[in-house]
Predict the 3D structure of the following.
Amino acid sequence: MNPAYGAIDPLALFAASGHDLALFRSLSQIFLDTTPAMLARMQQAVLQEPGQSNVAFLSASHALRGVAVLVGARGLAALLVELEAQAKRGGCPDSAALEPVSTQLAEVCGEVLHSIGAFRGNAA
Amino acid sequence: MQPVDVCTTQRAAEILGISVTSVQQLVESGVIEAWKTKGGHRRIPLSAVQAYMGAASQAARPGALASILIVEDNPMQRALYERQIGTWELPAVLRFCTNGYQALIEIARHKPDILLADIVMEGIDGYEVIRTILADPVLSNMHIAMLSSLTPEQLAERGGVPPGVVFFSKPVNYDELRGYLRAGCAQHARHAAPAP
């Protein structure tokens, strides 16, 4: 983990980008553009009728987890894995269970935004 | 030549339904004619694009490029695939679909040699796409790989990996994926080559 970042590991996305800084920045911007809608889908899912909610929740959580892994947001990804497991065991989580996700995603997005301007491929 | 008779690499990719990287490879290998402006921007005659479309619609020719179809709903992941695979200089044309429905149409239309499919997608998911292919004897030669961040337990709950299908865990190990695609492209080239 890069010491300048606690919630993400910019080296993970940079390596996956083929060490292309322009692509790294472009993908980081896509992350910022797309993840709020993913969180919104999760929030909508927990408000749906029981029975419908789980499928929608798991799909939305999976999508967010996929991009979290790409930016090296291991904490957020682990939280989502736990929520998915909880959903499998006992039904869809409630709105309160999503608050830590919202908090962590905000932190991750803040660092991703920072990395767009500051990350140079090694130390920020 | 009037500007209306030429297009950008991006536009050519849209017309042909393939990735920008694939168009660049076709241009650099001389398959599609093009030139660069003083500013370094590539320009492609529409006639060259149309000529390639005509050739591509014919049956497979000896030495023809393999076709790889990637079904992935996430734009970040699609961009990473395009970047990584584009640098491997495979003898292949790369196409993308963003959902399972679009993929089924593309598969029926172009019968790709290699399919890389995400599993969890809205609507028709990767499993349904793969089940459709496996049930069709016409598509029995297609190389199929699933790529997903599903945990082993989640994968097992969905029925696991079908026989004859390769699974790649996300985040993808690109060295492994490159080896898989190289093998698939080599097999395609061997089958497409004329008998000695």
Remarks:
- Chain A touches chain B through 22 residues (CB under 8 Å).
